[in-house]
Design brief:
The protein has 151 residues and is an all-alpha fold. Helix content is 70%, strand content 0%. The chain is built from four helices and no strands. The mean pLDDT is 78. GO terms for molecular function: protein transmembrane transporter activity.
């Protein structure tokens, strides 16, 4: 306990025997033993009290961290629900606007562009045998004309 070996303890007991005498030595040893027992009990109590306080502090800290994490998760969930609700209302508004556009009469719709006339497709910038072949290839409109089938 105090780093006292057997030899040192025997020397201390012999010195106490010489100084105190054989009649008082058992009574003093009993008192010293009670003192050591009381010291050990108090140190055990202090240690258990400190351990209990540390564990309570750790438990409180974990509880606070858990509550904070739950609050953050709840806030994220609420913001996700709000974003989903905003998207749904935006989609609903767009749907109503699209439905209103569909309910307009056809006369109000934008005029359609006139159809392109069909004819031979000629690439003006191209030259060579491919461009000449394209310009000489009869189209379906040429086949409908009298004498258009030149194949």
């Amino acid at each position: 306990m105090f780093g006292i070996g057997t030899t040192e303890l025997l020397i201390i007991i012999l010195v106490a025997l010489v100084v105190l005498g054989p009649s008082k030595l058992p009574e003093i040893m009993k008192t010293v033993g009670k003192g050591f027992a009381e010291f050990k009990r108090l140190s055990t109590d202090v240690k258990s009290t400190l351990d209990a306080e540390v564990s309570r502090a750790e438990r409180d800290e974990r509880r606070k961290e858990k509550e904070l994490a739950e609050k953050k998760a709840k806030a994220r969930e609420e913001s996700a629900k709000k974003a989903e609700k905003d998207e749904a209302s935006l989609g609903e508004q767009e749907g109503k606007a699209g439905q209103a556009d569909l309910s307009k009469p056809v006369d109000d719709a934008a005029p359609t562009r006139p159809e392109a006339q069909s004819g031979p497709v000629v690439d003006v910038q191209s030259s060579g045998p491919v461009a000449e072949t394209v310009s000489k290839t009869p189209t379906s409109a040429d086949k409908d004309k009298p004498g258009g089938d030149k194949a």
